[in-house]
UniProtKB/TrEMBL annotation:
Residues 1-23 form the signal peptide. The keyword Signal applies. Residues 184-272 form the Periplasmic copper-binding protein NosD beta helix domain. This is Right-handed parallel beta-helix repeat-containing protein. Transmembrane segments: none annotated. Keywords: Signal.
């Protein structure tokens, strides 16, 4: 798909592809990108945009208390470099952020990146990423670090291809210095996460405590030959609940449905069609 999206657009060019549409009342319309949002408020897209940048960010949220509603308009990248560092939307160490109704397509390195430095105390919290469509990023589709984070009703397709890197559909995590690390990841579809060089993860957590991961569809996750792919993988934490997910591998059999640390959570009532159903879970009843 990334080759199909390639076009003769200059590396720094950003083009409007559709006429201005009606924006919601009380919403500040973003008409020129790249942009930095530096004041609280509600912001909207009312047109599509196309870019070929291989580094930098189209929409940088640099304030707390921001809602970004793309109104189903598209941020499209025609970049074909698998060594880039570009993002469609970034919010770094922010809180009370909502990102919704965005369509992000093509050769970004990252789709939506709501992040923090996890080696420091929690700075990112009360953030929501919902009802977005992310297709074709080279490295990671959605990142949501912090606590009191909700990632719901998103569709993430065709992630992978970054040079010598793993691939992750949805990534969450929390501070390693203590404090809460609670995330809710539910009702998402993660399809076709594929790393030709390393491991692939449908949903990956660096650190979660008491998180809820439920009713997600994860399929087509494929790692490089000899590497294991994971539907849901939690690397640190405990007390997590992973339930009601449908997880299917790509048919290779080199796959794990749900993996947590020892005593890392309860893994139950998942539909698993993978090489190994679960690893490390406290309870594994009802998985089929």
């Amino acid at each position: 798909m990334k080759n199909v999206l390639a076009g003769a657009v200059g590396a720094a060019a950003l083009l409007c592809l559709s006429p201005m549409a009606h924006a919601q009342e009380g919403c500040s319309v973003l008409t020129v990108l790249p942009v930095t949002i530096s004041q609280p408020g509600k912001y909207c897209l009312a047109q599509n945009f196309t870019t070929a940048i291989t580094s930098g960010t189209l929409i940088n949220i640099a304030s707390n208390d921001v809602t970004l509603d793309c109104q189903k308009f598209t941020l499209r990248s025609t970049a074909t470099s698998n060594t880039g560092s570009s993002s469609a939307i970034v919010a770094m160490s922010r809180n009370n952020i909502v990102i919704e109704n965005c369509s992000i397509v093509g050769g970004f390195t990252y789709g939506i990146n709501v992040s923090q430095v996890n080696s420091q105390p929690t700075q990112s919290y009360y953030n929501t990423i919902r009802n977005n469509y992310v297709a074709g990023p080279y490295y990671q589709g959605i990142i949501a670090f912090g606590s009191a984070i909700e990632v719901s009703d998103n569709r993430v397709y065709d992630v992978g291809g970054q040079l010598n890197q793993l691939a992750i559909g949805i990534r969450v995590g929390g501070s390693t210095t203590g404090g809460p690390k609670f995330q809710v990841i539910r009702h998402n579809g993660v399809i076709g996460t594929n790393s030709p060089a390393s491991r692939a993860y449908g949903i990956y957590s660096d650190f979660s405590i008491g998180a809820l991961i439920n009713e997600n569809l994860i399929t087509g996750t494929a790692s490089a030959p000899g590497q294991v792919s994971y539907g849901v993988r939690i690397s640190q934490g405990g007390g997590n609940t992973i339930t009601g997910n449908n997880i299917l591998d790509n048919g290779s059999g080199q796959s794990v449905g749900v993996s947590t640390p020892a005593s890392g959570g309860w893994c139950y009532d998942n539909l698993l069609r993978v090489g190994t159903n679960t690893q490390g879970c406290d309870a594994t009843y009802g998985n089929d």
